[in-house]
Amino acid sequence: MILNRYNYSFIALILFHFCVLLFTMDGFSISYKESLIYFQGDSILHIITNFSTSLFGQTDFALRFPFILFYIGSSILLYLLTDDYFKSQWDRVFCLSIFMILPGLNSAALLVNESIIVVFGTLLYLYLYKIREKEHYYLLILFLFVDNSFAILFLALFFYSLKKRDNTLLLVSLVLFGTSMSIYGFEVGGRPRGYLIDTFGVYATIFSPLLFLYFFFSLYRIGLKWEKDMYWYVAITALALSLVFSLRQKIAIEDFAPFVVIAIPIMVKLFMHSIRVRLKEFRKVHYTVASITLLVLIINFFIFIFNQYLYLFLENNKKHFAYDYHIVKDLSYKLKDLNISNVHTKDKELALRLQFYKIYEGEDYLLTSENLNSFDKEIKINYHKKDIETFRIKELPK
């Protein structure tokens, strides 16, 4: 990669965002769902997190660092993929900037989940396809055993093979899709319950509302008038399946969202084209919409980074979007300051989360957030001088 001003901008963005993620990561505790993945099962997430903690110790850094690496890797792959996709190299940098501040992707970069692995795998496949101009079937076979959501990629490749009239890709993608369905499947039973609006709402949260509307418009516009590339087939397949399934049930959005964000280059390319074909005096509306959209994205990005400050504006602390990822690490530190390494609690979810921080189940102390008539110690967890949760400790008779 030749180092020019565009590539220097890309390197600066990557380094800045890497530091931001490390800073944000420090404010998160392990959630109950993450602790189940870490301590139980044999999924790829269990393998990755346990391997990382075996190298770096049983810390939040070790738990989340692999997913930050997948995120950085995804950003690098997107940048490499789009080296000849846009008319201007600044469009390329702009595309990466939007990709890096999407609320859904930033969450996926820090939480223990398959989404960012799926994004990385899909971009890797697209990149290898681009540089070698051939399919990498061994990679697709590997994806079959990584996560069930790759079935969407297989289906997208099936539709793409119809356009290309590639019989080999058609057969392989169809077999892989069928195999994935037989192994994992997608639940589609039940009565229609009107989850379509909920799905739109989740997508709007992942993208931000205005960006999602433009994403929807971009797929529609390109489907009618432009040449449809593999980005389009992947994104439209994921979106269409999620909306169809939403007519009958509440879907697991993490199965579909990784493929939808692949459409970011399509959106940027269409938007830049729409601006450049107009005279300067008719570009004002486009610039206004773009400015508002970027402002909303940037605000969401800062809310995500400094999310603990939201508690200052909430009456019910449990309404915080990241409440399940807070408190426990701070509680473990305060317990260790009191030389307490084992507690008994009725909250089994709390007990499993504390186990990650080496506070084990025991019979020496009772730990509860309920009111007690008498207790020996009281621990208050507070963020920015606001009390978030109060725990009481009572020494148990031996």
Care to give the gist of this entry?
The chain is of the alpha+beta class.
3D architecture notes:
It is a single chain. This protein is of the alpha+beta class. The chain is built from 18 helices and four strands. The protein has helices spanning 5-25, 32-39, 44-56, 60-81, 89-101, 103-110, 115-132, 137-144, 150-164, 167-183, 196-207, 209-225, 230-246, 257-260, 264-276, 284-305, 328-337, 348-356; strands at 342-344, 360-368, 377-383, 386-395. Strands 1-2-4-3 form a four-stranded mixed sheet, with helices on one face. α11 packs across α12. It is globular, with a radius of gyration of 24 Å. The model has no long low-confidence stretch (mean pLDDT 88).
Question: Which features would summarize this protein structure in a list?
Answer:
alpha+beta; single chain; 18 helices; 398 residues
Major sheet details: 4 strands, mixed
Helix content: 55-70%
Count of DSSP H/I helices:
18
Q: Into which percentage range does the β-strand content fall?
A: 5-15%
Mean pLDDT: 88
Residue runs with pLDDT of under 50 for 5 or more positions: none
What is the topological layout?
Blueprint: H1 5-25, H2 32-39, H3 44-56, H4 60-81, H5 89-101, H6 103-110, H7 115-132, H8 137-144, H9 150-164, H10 167-183, H11 196-207, H12 209-225, H13 230-246, H14 257-260, H15 264-276, H16 284-305, H17 328-337, E1 342-344, H18 348-356, E2 360-368, E3 377-383, E4 386-395
Parallel strand pairs: 1-2
Antiparallel strand pairs: 2-4, 3-4
